[in-house]
Amino acid sequence: MPTDAGTLQDGQLIKEVPCSYSPSQIVQWLSQIGFPTSYREADVLGGTFPHTAYAGQARVNTTPNLDNPTFTSLSHMIIFVQPFDKSNKTYIVDVGFGSTGLVRPILLSDAEGNTVIGTTAKERHRLTRGVHPYSSLDTAGASSSRADFTWNLEVSHTKSDGTPPRWKLLISFPETESFHIDMENASFVVSMKPEGLFWNNVLCIKYALLDDIDQFDGDEEAMKQAQAERRGNPEDVAKTFMFRYVMAGKKLTRNIGNCSVTVMTLESDEDRIRALKDVFGVEIPENALAHVKGRAASLNG
């Protein structure tokens, strides 16, 4: 099967499976994240919410290098989705990859024009094919449709000075389905192995629409940046643009397009708890500080 067809290998269909959540639970969650009421009532309560999807696992590239990536184990979850009835058109959804990951579905295709915008039009994602740099298999002259080739998700950012964007490799993944035990084991490794991003940080990311300018609290620079991101884009596209709050280490930044501004410096674990509540809406009791005390991620030393 050509790798630009937008389908799984051999054009496979994902069978419909029962949803683990009740319609009322789905409606409640969609309501919390602001999904249109008409969709919630007509599709979810009407029983047509799509269930044709499965989970996969990806390796994260821990360097920005496209040519010589350094990969983790298969520790990152992605989702393969076939949203259209009786169609094998397949999309990748990734709801948890840090501050540069997908924010929209992307067709499973390495066709040249298959890109999607990120939070704004200056950020773009694409899929390519490749092999693990330490693969023992002979791939010289081989077709990229071979099963030992995997999918690569890449990102680029257009700079304000007009410098041509460079593509960076984020994750690499096969089409293999993963199951609950795989995710359990990956989660254990990520949380308990004494190295890496999540061992050394408490990471939290929040997305919001650029149209919610009241969140900038009268910050003129932020509003100017938001207007600059919208400029030159069709209204129906610009209204989907977003920005991010990112908390990692001692910094809490607000990212609008290519512009990143530190809005808070965290000096203690108590500061972090306040930021989680005030900015991200996550309430953690102060007695939970006992669980980070003495660990690499603690800000209290």
Helix content: 10-25%
Average pLDDT, to the nearest integer? 87
CA-based shape: globular
List how many beta strands DSSP finds.
12
Quick recap:
The protein has helices at about 25-30, 35-45, 180-190, 195-200, 220-230, 235-240, 270-280; strands at about 55-60, 70-80, 90-95, 105, 115, 125-130, 150-155, 170-175, 205-210, 240-250, 250-255, 260-265. With about 300 residues, it is of the alpha+beta class.
Written overview of the protein:
With about 300 residues, the chain is α+β, with helices and mostly antiparallel strands. The protein folds into two domains: about 10-15 and about 50-200, Beta Barrel (Lipocalin), CATH 2.40.128; about 200-290, no CATH class. It is about 20% helix and about 25% strand. It is built from seven helices and twelve strands. An eight-stranded antiparallel sheet has the order 4-3-2-1-8-7-6-5. It has a four-stranded antiparallel sheet with strand order 9-10-11-12. It is globular and about 55 Å long. The model has no long low-confidence stretch (mean pLDDT about 85).
Give the SSE layout:
Layout: H1 23-32, H2 37-44, E1 53-61, E2 71-81, E3 91-93, E4 106-107, E5 115-117, E6 123-130, E7 150-157, E8 168-173, H3 180-192, H4 197-200, E9 204-209, H5 220-230, H6 235-238, E10 242-248, E11 251-256, E12 259-265, H7 269-278
Antiparallel strand pairs: 1-2, 1-8, 2-3, 3-4, 5-6, 6-7, 7-8, 9-10, 10-11, 11-12
GO molecular function, one term: acetyltransferase activity
InterPro entries: Arylamine_N-AcTrfase, Arylamine_NAT_domain_sf, Papain-like_cys_pep_sf
Protein name: Arylamine N-acetyltransferase
